[in-house]
Write a structure and sequence with these properties.
Keywords: Stress response
Number of strands: 10
Family: Belongs to the small heat shock protein (HSP20) family.
GO molecular function, one term: unfolded protein binding
CATH architecture of the largest domain: Sandwich
CATH topology of the largest domain: Immunoglobulin-like
Number of domains: 2
Order of helices and strands: HEEEEEEEEEE
Organism: Saccharolobus solfataricus (strain ATCC 35092 / DSM 1617 / JCM 11322 / P2)
Protein name: Small heat shock protein hsp20 family
Strand order of the largest sheet: 1-2-3-8-7-6
Length: about 180
Amino acid sequence: MPKREEKDIFDLMDEWIREMEEEFERIEREFMRGFRGKGEGIRQFGPYVYGFRITVGPDGVPKIEEFGNVRKIRGKPMISEEREPLADVIEKGDEIKVVAEVPGVNKEDIKVKVTNGGKKLVITAKSEDRQYYKEIDLPAEVDEKAAKANFKNGVLEITLKKKASSSDSGVDIKVE
């Protein structure tokens, strides 16, 4: 039986980048096809944005995170008016920091909400020409009352405090 050839991380990354480039070219062709009609009923979306980031976690497994307003729904590319911003989740001690890029909006246009019992963060932003939407599953339950958010130069930084566990030592049960 022939030995299966293993690929290193750089070969995998080259393969993913090649696949993404092919997919992006296909999306672009399909998108442009929509503008070749008679001009009736064609809705212009403005710019379309697509990007991805590849990171390797401590377990050595690569993670691909997509961002922008191009999504694949049932195998077809769909252009949305809402962009998904690039966001980082940093867990340190009893804090969780979320840093999201939302350029082109004002502080007043941004809404940040903790949902699902402190387990999910939802970021929405809407201005005249830009819309953003992102749901982030948090690595731990947070206290929504202790949350703080800052916005400067298109970067939104949210600091969340982890909820204190009710009882780390457990509860003694009397054996009868």
